[in-house]
């Protein structure tokens, strides 16, 4: 599989991801009832924000996942942990499919992490998935994340976890 990542274009990509973020399997994305206009508005705001970016991931040239990168000292986790220089927050969502491929999501999260660590300024990746999202906890662990503690965000109880470059490289057996 060849994975590439490109910047999100709200005017074109909102229509692409609308069925992804509203799919029942994307319940943790918290956009179940969102209209196409809601999605376009949300991602227009994200792409315009100085501390938040969105990307479309392609696998073998086909759109297959959504990735967000954010500065946790400015968004999402302000006041919930002590940020360190080089911290980068991340969200990702794999497009729903009727024909799942074994290992696909792990390939995606590995590519997302490699993309984040391709920036030499990234020291540590921070995630805050819902505590009940056991599937993503297992994926996070597979690429080197270490849970620190549960935190209460306005919209959910989350598991605050961190992954350094060294932890990622050790987990996936590669150097970035």
TrEMBL record:
Residues 6-53 form the Acyltransferase MbtK/IucB-like conserved domain. Pfam families: Acetyltransf_8. The keyword Acyltransferase applies. It comes from the Bacteria. SMART domains: AlcB. Keywords: Acyltransferase, Transferase. One of its GO terms (molecular function) is acyltransferase activity. InterPro entries: Acyl_CoA_acyltransferase, Acyltransferase_MbtK/IucB-like. Pathway: Siderophore biosynthesis; mycobactin biosynthesis. Acyltransferase required for the direct transfer of medium- to long-chain fatty acyl moieties from a carrier protein (MbtL) on to the epsilon-amino group of lysine residue in the mycobactin core. This is Lysine N-acyltransferase MbtK. It comes from Streptomyces exfoliatus (Streptomyces hydrogenans). The lineage of its organism: Bacteria, Bacillati, Actinomycetota, Actinomycetes, Kitasatosporales.
